[in-house]
User: Which sequence fits this backbone?
């Protein structure tokens, strides 16, 4: 799953059971992490954070989706926290950490994370990128900001008009450096880096270690620690995947039939059902309850307390069907499952792999059932392309709402009786994914800007139209 190579350092990999508390982060940062629902660091976090805190340059082989953002943002906040000031004077808020990303969407995403993780501190985070009016960005930069996330071209524009000054930058992050090179940013990168003090810490993240990246690393990093974390892009072999073609209107009844078939086969009814929207999640959960299935919903509108209660009920068996959106599922430690049902296919194929990765973990067997209607055919194609395999389309089990025939092999992969499911010990899930597109959550983060920030012109326009925004803070 992950390994570490440390050419420039003598450290060994940290113990597998490391927790966020072990990093010695300031309580304000730990509080924010807890509020995100993170309990265990992902491998890239466990391996990178101590090195960043120790001041090493770092070269991380990790893609978006591995928890990489927190791997650099959390220790950055810790390191620059000593500069935090509640003074209104812009002079007290120079740029201390600069994160360069190849795309606007990634910049927004990183900025949202930076704003969340720093929300209990007096540090400011903001994002600037091209393709939108500069005015709002200018006002944000003039007010002062300690953590700046930027795409290179637009940052150079601001430097050119003397709105951004990099002379006090202590930490530089090149995020998705391989993509930056692909997109021809090298000359811009060079110009920016020339403006940053040589006495800095540099962190470089890249999905590949191509010769170009190695060259870049050599010229910009000093005896870097190298941390490597792989992201799976295939489901475990132990997961048996089945697709049922079902019209949207029949999907809820199809779930009931699927669970009845599992009961008849002596399998556990315990399952996670993924939906795409919060509203759909809540509605489905209620509808299943009416059908006699013990169901509970977790989604982004639920408080952390409610989510924990529902999850505990699920783990104890009081709830059989946990209906979840990706947002909720990601931030929670959901244990290994005998069965995952996709009520709808996710819009992003990689999310599908994340969802079905909830079953068949650590060598145990599991069933992943997708209910697909005709309008989702394109999403199914994308998923099959990503997984490089065709999924088995089977009729629904007997008694199902469509005219399908019973299939004895439908859920035959699960070995043995699972009528008494018990949750395994907590484990970290190394597999996270978040698409580049700004999420709905990003809109609300932005909308949650303080009134005075809005007044100060920090309120972003809608990411959908690619507007600038300050991914600003705070609660
Ligand atoms: P990233 O690779 O930074 O884009 O992160 C991918 C997703 O993982 C994001 O939705 C993060 O909020 C989430 N995430 C990051 N760290 C953790 C963690 N330690 N536990 C649970 N979720 C996390």
Assistant:
């Amino acid at each position: 799953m992950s390994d570490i190579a440390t050419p420039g350092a003598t450290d060994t990999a940290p113990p597998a059971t490391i927790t966020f508390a072990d990093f010695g982060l300031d309580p304000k940062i730990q509080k924010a992490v807890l509020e995100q629902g993170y309990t265990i660091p992902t491998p890239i976090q466990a391996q990178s954070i101590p090195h960043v805190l120790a001041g090493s340059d770092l070269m991380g082989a990790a893609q978006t989706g591995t928890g990489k953002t927190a791997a650099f943002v959390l220790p950055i906040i810790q390191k620059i926290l000593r500069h935090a000031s509640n003074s209104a004077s812009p002079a007290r808020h120079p740029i201390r950490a600069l994160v360069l990303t190849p795309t606007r969407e990634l910049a927004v995403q990183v900025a949202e994370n930076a704003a969340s993780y720093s929300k209990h501190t007096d540090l400011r985070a903001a994002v600037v990128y091209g393709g939108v009016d500069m005015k709002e960005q200018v006002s944000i930069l003039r007010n002062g900001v300690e953590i700046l996330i930027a795409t290179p071209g637009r940052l150079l524009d601001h430097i050119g008009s003397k709105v951004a000054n990099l002379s006090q930058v202590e930490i530089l992050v090149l995020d998705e450096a391989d993509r930056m090179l692909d997109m021809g940013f090298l000359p811009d990168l060079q110009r920016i880096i020339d403006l940053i003090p040589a006495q800095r810490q540099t962190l470089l993240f890249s999905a590949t270690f191509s010769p170009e990246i190695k060259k870049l690393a050599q010229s910009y990093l000093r005896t870097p620690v190298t941390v490597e974390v792989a992201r799976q892009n295939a489901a475990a072999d132990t997961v048996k995947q089945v697709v049922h073609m079902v019209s949207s209107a029949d999907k809820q009844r199809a779930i009931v039939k699927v669970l009845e078939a599992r009961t008849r086969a002596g399998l556990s009814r315990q399952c996670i059902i993924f939906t795409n929207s919060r509203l759909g999640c809540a509605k489905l959960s209620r509808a299943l309850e009416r059908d006699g299935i013990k169901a509970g919903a977790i989604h982004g509108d639920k408080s952390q307390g409610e989510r924990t209660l529902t999850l505990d009920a699920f783990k104890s068996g009081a709830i059989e069907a946990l209906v979840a959106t990706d947002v909720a599922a990601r931030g929670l430690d959901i244990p290994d499952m005998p069965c995952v049902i996709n009520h709808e296919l996710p819009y992003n194929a990689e999310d599908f792999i994340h969802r079905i990765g909830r079953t068949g973990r650590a060598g145990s067997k599991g069933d992943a059932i997708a209910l697909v209607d005709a309008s989702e055919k394109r999403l199914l194609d994308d998923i099959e392309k990503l997984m490089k395999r065709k999924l088995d389309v089977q009729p629904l089990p007997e008694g199902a709402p469509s005219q399908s025939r019973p299939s004895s092999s439908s859920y035959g992969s699960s070995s043995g009786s699972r009528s008494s499911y018990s949750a395994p010990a907590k484990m970290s899930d190394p597999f996270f994914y978040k698409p580049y597109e700004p999420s709905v959550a990003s809109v609300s983060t932005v909308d949650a800007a303080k009134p005075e920030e809005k007044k100060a012109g920090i309120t972003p326009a809608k990411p959908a139209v690619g507007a600038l925004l300050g991914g600003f803070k705070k609660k």
About this structure: The chain is about 35% helix and 15% strand. Residues 10-232 form a domain with the Rossmann fold fold (CATH 3.40.50.300). Residues 38, 40-42, 45, 64-70, 330-331, 432, 434 surround adenosine monophosphate (CB under 6 Å). The chain has two domains: 10-232, 239-443.
